[in-house]
UniProtKB/TrEMBL annotation:
HAMAP family: RNase_Y. The keyword Hydrolase applies. This is Ribonuclease Y. Residues 85-147, 176-203 form a coiled coil. Belongs to the RNase Y family. PANTHER family: RIBONUCLEASE Y. Endoribonuclease that initiates mRNA decay. One of its GO terms (cellular component) is plasma membrane. GO terms for biological process: mRNA catabolic process. It comes from candidate division WWE3 bacterium RIFCSPHIGHO2_02_FULL_38_14. The chain crosses the membrane at residues 6-26.
C-alpha cells in the first residue's frame, strides 16, 4: 500500500514538472523568436493561419532532463519506502518479542503469587490452631490459679486483700529499717568527709595567712635629727604647730618621747599624711605656715594617688574588676588601717582566698563571695559619718548600686542578722577564720581580758544593772537589769547610755553591741 502512494506521488510530480518545463521552453522560444525577428511576426501569423504546424517537445533537452529527474525521484521514493517498511517490520518484531517476554514474566509472577497465597493460607491455619491451643492452656492456668488461691485462702485463713496488706506492711517495715540504716551510714560518711574537708580548708587558710604583721594602733612616730627642731615645729606663739594640726586634723605630742614626735589620730589616713608632711618639713627646714600648707596639700594629693593605686592593686589581686572609682579609692585606705596589728589589705586578701576556696567546695556563687569578702570591712574606712562599720558599709554600697546579694554578705558577716544565703555564711566564716586564727592579731591575753572586764564594768556603773556578760570576743555586751528598778521604757535609754560610755572611754576594734534584757518573773504557791 505505501508503494502505490509513493509511485502516484512521483508520477504527479513528474507530470507537473514536465508541463511546467515545456511551458517555459515554449515561452522562451517564442519570446526569443519574437525579439530576434520582429519584422516577421505578421508573416508567421499568416503562415500559421494558412497551414497549421505541430512542434514536438518530447525531444527537447529540458523535457528529457525532467523525465530523467522524475525517474531518479521515483527510485529514491522506492528506496525510502523500502527502508521505512523494513524499519516498521523490525519495530513490530521487537514489540512482539517484548509482549511475549512480558506475558512470560506475568505468568511467572502469577504462579509465584499463587504459591505465596497457598503458603499464607497454610500459616494462617497453623496460627489459628496455635491460638486455640494457647487459649485452652490459658483457661487451664486460670482455673488452676483460681483453685490454688482458694486453697491458699483456706489454709492461711486470709483473703486476698488481707494477705496483700500483710505483705506490704512487712515490706514497708523492712524498707524503713533499711532506709534508716542507709541514712546512718550516709551521715557517718558525710561527717567523716566533712571533717577531713574542714581540716583541709583550715590548713589552706593557715597557709594563705602565713604573713607577718606590723603592730600599729592610733599613733605614729617621727624621729627628729635634734631636739632643737621641736622649737621650730612649735613656732612663734605656737602658730606652726597650730597650723599643722588644723590642716592635718591630728595632734602632735612633742613631750612624751625624747628625740621623737608622736602623731596621734584615730584616722589612719590623716595620720599618714601628717607623718609624711612632718618628715618633709623637717628635711626642708623651712617650717612656717605657708610652707606647711603647701607641703600638706602636696602630700595629701600624693597619698590620695597612692591609695587609689593600692585599691586598684587589691582589686586586681583578688580578681574583681569594673568597680566604681570611689569604691576603689576607699579600698586603698585599707593600706593605712589596722585592727590589732592586722592590716586590712592583708586581712582582705587572706579572707577572699579562704572564701573563694570554700565557695568552690560548696558549689556556691564564687563571684558573690569574692565581692562580699573584698567589701565586707569597707565601712571601717568611712570616717565622715557615724555608725557601725557594718551599717556604714551597707549604706555606701547601696549608694553605688552594688548587688543586693553582696550587700547582704556585708550586713551579715558578724551575724548581726541571720545568714540569708550560703554565700553570706561563707563570707562570715572566712572573716572569722582570718581574724581569729593564731598569729593573725597581736593582742595578748592580758589585754584581751582587761578589755572584756572594762566593758563589763562600764555597764555595772549604772543603777539597776544586775548581771553583765561580755561575749563574742568583746563585740557584744549583754546586760541583765532588775525589773523592779528598770522598767520597759528605761531599757532603751539605758542601752544608749552604756554604749555612749563605752564609746567615749574605751578603745576597741570594730563595734560593740549593747543588749539590755529585762525579765519579769511572777510566781505563786498553791496551798
Amino acid at each position: 500500500m505505501p508503494d502505490i502512494f509513493v509511485i502516484i506521488i512521483a508520477i504527479l510530480l513528474s507530470l507537473a514538472t514536465g508541463g511546467i518545463v515545456i511551458y517555459l521552453i515554449v515561452q522562451k522560444r517564442i519570446g526569443s523568436s519574437v525579439q530576434s525577428q520582429p519584422s516577421q511576426v505578421n508573416q508567421l501569423n499568416q503562415q500559421a493561419a494558412d497551414q497549421p504546424k505541430i512542434y514536438d517537445v518530447s525531444q527537447d533537452p529540458a523535457v528529457l532532463e525532467a523525465k530523467s529527474r522524475a525517474k531518479e525521484i521515483i527510485l529514491e521514493a522506492k528506496d525510502s519506502a523500502l527502508k521505512i517498511k523494513t524499519e516498521a517490520e523490525s519495530s513490530i518484531r521487537s514489540l512482539r518479542e517484548q509482549d511475549a517476554s512480558l506475558e512470560k514474566d506475568m505468568l511467572i509472577r502469577k504462579s509465584q503469587l499463587e504459591t505465596r497465597e497457598k503458603e499464607i493460607e497454610s500459616k494462617l491455619r497453623t496460627l489459628k490452631q496455635a491460638k486455640e491451643a494457647i487459649d485452652r492452656k490459658q483457661e487451664e492456668v486460670d482455673s488452676m490459679y483460681k483453685n490454688q488461691k482458694e486453697q491458699l485462702e483456706k489454709v492461711a485463713s486470709l483473703t486476698r486483700d488481707e494477705a496483700r496488706k500483710l505483705l506490704l506492711d512487712k515490706f514497708e517495715k523492712e524498707i524503713i529499717e533499711e532506709k534508716g540504716k542507709r541514712i546512718r551510714e550516709i551521715e557517718e560518711e558525710i561527717k567523716k568527709t566533712s571533717e577531713e574537708k574542714a581540716k583541709e580548708i583550715l590548713i589552706e587558710a593557715m597557709r594563705y595567712g602565713a604573713t607577718d604583721y606590723v603592730v600599729e594602733y592610733t599613733t605614729s612616730k617621727v624621729k627628729l635629727p635634734d631636739e632643737d627642731i621641736k622649737g621650730r615645729i612649735i613656732g612663734k606663739e605656737g602658730r606652726n604647730i597650730t597650723t599643722f594640726e588644723e590642716l592635718t586634723g591630728v595632734e602632735l605630742d612633742l613631750d612624751s618621747s625624747p628625740g621623737e614626735v608622736i602623731v596621734s589620730s584615730f584616722d589612719p589616713v590623716r595620720r599618714e599624711i601628717a607623718k609624711i608632711a612632718l618628715e618633709r618639713l623637717i628635711a626642708d627646714g623651712r617650717i612656717q605656715p605657708a610652707k606647711i600648707e603647701e607641703i600638706v596639700d602636696k602630700t595629701r594629693n600624693e597619698v590620695d594617688h597612692i591609695m587609689y593605686k593600692e585599691g586598684d592593686n587589691l582589686c586586681h589581686r583578688v580578681g574583681v574588676y569594673n568597680l566604681p572609682k570611689d569604691i576603689i579609692q576607699m579600698l586603698g585606705r585599707f593600706k593605712y588601717r589596722f585592727s590589732y596589728g592586722q592590716n586590712l589589705i592583708e586581712h582582705t586578701l587572706e579572707e577572699t582566698r579562704i572564701g573563694v576556696a570554700i565557695a568552690h567546695e560548696l558549689k556556691a556563687d564564687v563571684e558573690t563571695v569574692k565581692l562580699g569578702c573584698l567589701l565586707h570591712d569597707i565601712g571601717k574606712v568611712v570616717s565622715d559619718e557615724e555608725g557601725t562599720h557594718i551599717q556604714l558599709g551597707v549604706d555606701l554600697l547601696k549608694k553605688y548600686n552594688i548587688s543586693q546579694k553582696v550587700i547582704d554578705c556585708v550586713a551579715e558577716h558578724h551575724e548581726d542578722k541571720p545568714f540569708s544565703s550560703v554565700e553570706s555564711a561563707v563570707v562570715g566564716l572566712a572573716d572569722h577564720v582570718s581574724g581569729a586564727r593564731p598569729g593573725a592579731r597581736s593582742e595578748d591575753y592580758e589585754s584581751y581580758v582587761k578589755r572584756l572586764k572594762d566593758l563589763e564594768e562600764a555597764a555595772y556603773s549604772f543603777d539597776g544593772v544586775e548581771k553583765v556578760y561580755a561575749i563574742s570576743a568583746g563585740r557584744e555586751v549583754r546586760v541583765f537589769v532588775k525589773p523592779q528598778i528598770v522598767d520597759d521604757a528605761s531599757t532603751a535609754l539605758l542601752a544608749r547610755e552604756i554604749a555612749k560610755k563605752i564609746e567615749l572611754e574605751q578603745t576597741y576594734p570594730g563595734v560593740v553591741k549593747v543588749v539590755v534584757i529585762r525579765e519579769t518573773r511572777v510566781s505563786e504557791t498553791a496551798k
